[in-house]
Please model this.
Amino acid sequence: MEIFLDRTFSGLTAGAIYVLVALALVVVFRSSGTINFAQGEFALFTCFIAWGLTTKGWPILLAMAACIAVGFVLGVVAERWLIRPVAKRSESAVLIVALGLFIGLNGADGWIWGPADKLFPRLLPGDEDSYVLIGGSRLHFDTIGIVLLMILVVALLNLLLNRTSLGLTMRAVATNPESASLSGVRVGRVLSLSWGLSGAIGSFAGVLLVPVLPPNQLNLSGFFPILIFASAAALLGGLDSIRGAVVGGLVFGVGASWLNGYATFLGGTLQLTVAFTIIVLVLVAKPTGLFGSRRVERV
Model:
């Protein structure tokens, strides 16, 4: 039982991070109907900026605020100057641009900050003595803090998307941008805000992620598996569903932790294979995911 709880608590940490990144994907999809495959690299780039600021003596909280602001601006710029010009051509063009962003940002990270791993300061307490005992297992304070922050972001995002006019216009733009424009909705502004919000959420998740997930350092390849798991979580729950992102993220986080503990022969590579397999199965069997809504087009 103690080992089970240890693995579950560890999985909650990863799962909360997957939830946050999945939420960033949901925000973009709800407004534009596309998946931002460069989301992980947005977060990685801004985390490098935060790391650089901490090396110059900035407190981690202030560096995190700057990181989130840069993430918002990066999302707005990417949508306005890279995604929007090709969005009317085809979905394939958007995909290619997003993949180009993925490669370009990763290359820029290595060129600016070098290939060596960087030690990233913790936002939350994470030493060996910072825990509470539950059933003989240690529930660390950083896990509690990350889960609480995740719940706060979910609550605020749910309020924004489901209880405000912005959330309504985002859904309208994703469903039919031409009709939304004719109704007086400033489609370009809504798209920019959604991509900016997505970039900010991803950057926030990155600051929480780096110090707590192996190898506990900032490196050029660390965010790719996170994006895969978060994408699988968003697809499993439904790309337009906040509830689905939460369920999917926690399922993958806790599930992967259980696999690490009870099926060690799988290893990290096979876990990614499992995530890819789930993505394919969901797309084939139930494209809307567990909680996603089916869109009806009038002809």
Summary: The mean pLDDT is 88.
